[in-house]
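Internal tracking record. Fields below are filled automatically when a chain is submitted to the structure queue. Please do not edit lines marked as system-generated. If the sequence contains nonstandard residues, flag them in the REMARKS field before resubmitting.
Queue: standard
Priority: normal
Entity type: single polypeptide chain
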Amino acid sequence: MPSIVGPVQIIHVSGGVVQFGDTVYISPKNSSKVVEGSGSGNNGGLIVNNNGLNGNNILDQNLIDQPTVGNN
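SYSTEM-GENERATED OUTPUT FOLLOWS
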C-alpha cells in the first residue's frame, strides 16, 4: 500500500534496517540487551537531560528475550 513519508532525520546508523514503503516482513537478525542510566541512550540533533538520582535493575530473570533462531 503506497504511503507518503514526511521529513526524516537519521543522525547515526550502526547496523539495522530502515524501511520506507511496502514490505512483506521484517525480522531481527540479531538481538542484544543494554543496561543504561536514565537519558544515556538518547539520540538526536538537540538533547536536554535533567536527571536526578538513578538506579538500574540488572537482574534478568527471563533468559531468552528475543530468539533469533530460524530468522532468515
